[in-house]
């Protein structure tokens, strides 16, 4: 009865879904050919300039655009984009909710055990978003460690969260927020004194808002090399992707693309995934 | 990639902490729902010209909009008008007010359910308002109200998980947090579900017993 | 208010998903409600036990957890439903288990005499259910079913937490892009309120339509002669 009911309703629902047959029941890896035929589904964050989905449904931002350009060389198209939270990106990849994550996800040790990272495609910085004039004078991560009554807003599951925790910022000081804009609103609502996030996203968020400042990237924050993340079974895809990515990074197209979104195209030089995977956290 | 028992055991302590928050959240929410609901019901019962329709609308509105959106409004909109409360306090107030709309209706139905004969008898005996309410009407109304309220509070207990969306670190949020840190959702989510059941199942049996006990006396 | 106008087409598309999910899952709710409700009334333990277990699981745990579980954990067992199907399934099963208790409760509360008369007429258990008990029970089921449907509508907002682009998801997204938090959330409240109000009216209409009026008594359907049920 239980199984029957479940199976029956599953069948009823599958037939009523909009995109039948997406994601097969077997857990084996999809071949590159399958991706060529079916397209690829990408998870992004709503965090320009790294990644975002526009009002017309187009997936864009530096990370998805690099993904798109490289996949195009492999004959694969981005079929669908989903905005999700950082903490759900890797579990969703395992659950086959999407095939690749292109959200400027920073390469680090714990994540390297769960997903396959491409070679780094964006190397960038983090900073604090603070009320105008920086009343609490927050300039470095060490300030957060030294001053235990400082509250810092951070997105759960992000590299930033790991950096703060590892530096010794206590759990009680961290104010978790569920999406990038909520971090800013947490500071405005005085739930937090500062918001630790990527420099460029912060600048984009506060662009017209005079009540916020974005600090210089703290000197004590580590290098953040980001790449796109594939399922652990997609080794074939990863290999082909990296080959094309390395070629792509040498082109002027890559340089233009990075400049367009405000990133430094030089920063990525010499940074490797193998090295970044040693970053603890 | 299936069940990892060792991992499940390792996340249990953090989930139990989340469960404690969930229970606290529910108990505080129940208190608000009981009190605000009573005020709303009594005021509506007085049939005060302007207030009665306003309260009627309040009940309709709270019942007609999703708890999630109410929580978002309280959490994101109120601070823009200078009211900033912690996620927990915001959560308690929102869920308490949300369920006050339901408890108000329960009170109303309970009081109206007391047979007319009883009201007439009270009038005939010339009993004062205090004795009328405390001795005659409420004791009878409570009998029918208790199981219904119980069911709503059980529902509130389960609904409190919605408040994870405004970063209250209750059971579901705790599960998502450990899940996010370890990149595994299966064990934390399943355990969170089990923990909800461990409390809600015995509670529902208790409520059913109350239902039966009170039902037979009529 | 500018953001609401600017993003109106997207919000409308989100509204479309909200309505689609509501309609599809409400169909599933009705089916699951009758299956579990009737199964739990069965005299056979192998029918009512599994139904009871399912109902207790869905009623005992939180819907949000079920949504997350169906979305992120179920695929690990090789059951890979598209997001919309997973959404409809979760809402349908959850709502159906609540509604199933309504079905069971109402049918159980029918006067004993009805069953006795039906037995005396030689009707089997299934025919009794189909021709006597269920038709009589529908008017009593409609108001609580209406509440289940309104809950269902409200619960679709939870799907925004698992990347389903419903009204709430689109609104969150518009808010993220524009920062016009107040206007967008207040618009959401109004839309959901209007929808549940309409759903309430629809239920009222159904109640009138299916009330045990004299008209329907005046045109009784003739029973076919039966031998021990169908």
Overall description:
The complex is a heterotrimer of chains A (281), B (218) and C (230). Chain A is of the alpha/beta class and 281 residues long. Chain A has helices at residues 2-16, 32-38, 62-74, 86-94, 109-112, 141-146, 159-167, 180-188, 199-205, 235-249, 252-260, 273-276, and strands spanning 40-44, 52-53, 59-60, 78-83, 100-106, 116-117, 122-124, 126-131, 152-154, 174-176, 194-198, 212-214, 224-230. Chain A is built from twelve helices and 13 strands. In chain A, strands 1, 4, 5, 6, 7 and 13 form a six-stranded mixed beta sheet that branches. In chain A, helix 7 links the parallel strand 9 (152-154) and strand 10. The radius of gyration of chain A is 20 Å and the shape is globular. Chain B has 218 residues and is mainly alpha-helical. Chain B has a domain at 27-171: MetI-like fold (Orthogonal Bundle), CATH 1.10.3720.10. Helices cover 81% and strands 0% of the residues of chain B. Chain C is an all-alpha fold and 230 residues long. The mean pLDDT of chain C is 90. Chain C contains ten helices and no strands. The chains are: A alpha/beta (281), B mainly alpha (218), C mainly alpha (230). Chains in contact: A-B, A-C, B-C.
CATH class value of one domain in chain B: Mainly Alpha
* CATH C-level class of the largest domain in chain A: Alpha Beta
Mean pLDDT of chain A: 89
CATH fold-level topology of one domain in chain B: MetI-like fold
Kindly report the oligomeric state of this protein: heterotrimer
Named at the architecture level, the CATH assignment of one domain in chain B is Orthogonal Bundle
CATH architecture of the largest domain in chain A: 3-Layer(aba) Sandwich
Write the layout of secondary structure elements.
The complex is a heterotrimer of chains A (281), B (218) and C (230).
Chain A: H1 2-16, H2 32-38, E1 40-44, E2 52-53, E3 59-60, H3 62-74, E4 78-83, H4 86-94, E5 100-106, H5 109-112, E6 116-117, E7 122-124, E8 126-131, H6 141-146, E9 152-154, H7 159-167, E10 174-176, H8 180-188, E11 194-198, H9 199-205, E12 212-214, E13 224-230, H10 235-249, H11 252-260, H12 273-276
Parallel strand pairs in A: 1-4, 1-5, 9-10, 9-11
Antiparallel strand pairs in A: 2-3, 5-13, 6-13, 7-13, 8-11, 8-12
Helix pairs in contact in A: 3-10
Chain B: H1 5-46, H2 51-64, H3 67-77, H4 87-112, H5 116-125, H6 129-159, H7 171-182, H8 186-216
Helix pairs in contact in B: 1-2, 1-4, 1-7, 1-8, 2-4, 3-4, 4-6, 6-8, 7-8
Chain C: H1 2-6, H2 8-41, H3 45-60, H4 63-73, H5 83-108, H6 112-120, H7 125-155, H8 167-178, H9 181-210, H10 214-218
